[in-house]
Write a structure and sequence with these properties.
mainly alpha; globular
């Protein structure tokens, strides 16, 4: 979660609605066996893809990384 926030330069308060809307903890728990083999950048990109596949538009967020 910290890596995702860092990628977009989001505070916790800005990030919580995204976490809740897209049920990110559930996604990460379901994918943990796969995701824990990869580095943070891979996981962040996978989460971004997951959000975008569900209609999320992250283009308005500032990508700092």
């Amino acid at each position: 979660m910290t890596a995702i926030r860092g990628r977009f330069g989001l505070s916790r308060a800005e990030f919580v609605p995204i976490v809740l809307k897209y049920e990110l903890p559930s996604f990460l728990i379901e994918q943990y066996e796969l995701l824990h083999y990869y580095d943070n950048d891979y996981i962040v990109n996978d989460v971004i893809k997951y959000i975008e596949e569900r209609g999320g538009d992250l283009s308005g967020l500032s990508r700092t990384g």
